[in-house]
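Open question from group meeting: does this chain pack into something compact, or does most of it stay loose? Before anyone orders reagents, we agreed to write out a predicted structure and look at it together. Recording both the input and the output here so the notebook holds the full record.
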Amino acid sequence: MALIGDALSHAVLPGVVVALLLTGSAGVPGLLLGALLAGLLTAVLVNLVSRYSRTKEDSAIGIVFTALFAVGIILVSSLPRGTHFDLKCFLFGDPLAVGRDDFWMMVSIGAAVLVIVGLLFHPLKLLSFDPVVAAAMGLPVALLHYLLMGMLSATVVAGLKATGVVLVVAMLITPASAAYQLSNRLAGMLFLSGLFGAVSAAAGMSLAFVTNAPTGPAMVVVATVLFALAMFLSPSHGVVFEWLRRRRLSRHIAEEDLLRAVYKLSEPSRAAGSPAPTLADVARETHLVVRRLQSLVRTRGVRELVHFDQGHLTRDQRETRGSDPVSGL
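Structure tokens returned:
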């Protein structure tokens, strides 16, 4: 689906140019209609190529969107002399070129998409996660799929002036990916992705104003920074917290191994009247280094069950009544 978003952002170019040729103006309704038709054509062609050939869906997406984008470039080069079409703005965006009509188009598309997603939340959710089950339940899977493609095409058109076709993909994917790091529920993910997108746009515009940098790339950089923060600092899926959880688990397992080894080695020592096992004995039994064992015997969980005195490890005589101390850890 992420690759389809990339494909649609490029494939709308021929639709926009054809609309410009037919209407003779860069008016918002014509360009929006042309982009929507091009987006739906892309979805249909991807479906046809993947169904009637041995080509996988990801390869079909690559074939179709590059072909349509190439056709769009050819159409741009064949525009009549004097026709104004800023290809650089179309590719890379320029938020300062957003006019009143463009603004109201963004508002209208945003409101329409929110309303449709709200009304069809559960069917779209089922379609996204398991289209086979959705079809088995009698949902119009094909219609929902093309509706989703239409909304995606409209969203791409809404963002063209701000970020261009090259970077609008980042604003489609990166905020949602950052939200996915922080939420296991689709509704929460949708809310967070919208919030991250808004923050990326506002902070990117401010960063571009302060540093005199291009606005579209600045928005994408902020969105990428937010994703990196979510990837590393997410409490449930972040790299840092995952490392801390693994470290705690590794220490817990090492403590259990130490206690088990002390219990195992102390039984024959106590019966024979020989000295209690040393750290070296426990190290051979557990395959842990002595320095790691020295650190473990200072932890609270081990100190409550094992005494370390003059290099020897002895079981706490108050702890058991004959039971295995490891089972109580």
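Observations to bring back to the group:
The chain is about 75% helix and 0% strand.
The chain has two domains: 2-172, 240-328.
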